[in-house]
Amino acid sequence: MIKLDYTLETPEERNELVKKILEENPDPGEKYLEILADYLILCMEKQERKERKILTDNRMMTVNKRETSFEGLISQFENGEDGIYNLITENKNIIF
Question: For residue 50, what pLDDT is reported?
Fold first, then answer.
């Protein structure tokens, strides 16, 4: 079995190695696929991650904290939809 080579620095080199590994073992387990994916992603530079819009676990935590739906907001108020409308004011300095 071919081992992961962490001395390879470019995504292209690592991609070739992963292809060889998958040719040798065409049906890897789910955990091993996750390890291979991490092996490929972690070598990319930060800018490449942004360009390719790769959502890492850390990024997903941030997105999930800030993301909400109208229905989610309604469920936070005891008087439902009216609670949201009660927050609306003409004062533009209020931050929700």
Answer: 64
